[in-house]
Amino acid sequence: MAKKSFVLRIDDETYKLLEKWANDEFRSVNGQIEYLLHQNLIESGRKKNKTPQNETQETKNNSK
């Protein structure tokens, strides 16, 4: 999957909170932002959640 780069400007306090949260979950700040966006896209119904179980089922269906 190709990734697109862009600049994100956030205030220092928000960055420090994100950095702490990312460290708590063993992620980079960038990885934490990607994770949060991904989770919120799924929760809002804007993106389908592709779990390994769903992918296995899709693979079986496509091979028929």
Automatic annotation (TrEMBL):
- The region called Disordered is annotated at 42-64
The annotated regions of Polar residues compositional bias extend over 51-64
- InterPro entries associated with the record: Arc_rbn_hlx_hlx, Ribbon_hlx_hlx
Tell me what organism the protein belongs to: Cloacibacterium rupense
How is this protein named in the record?
Arc family DNA binding domain-containing protein
Q: Which domain of life is it from?
A: Bacteria
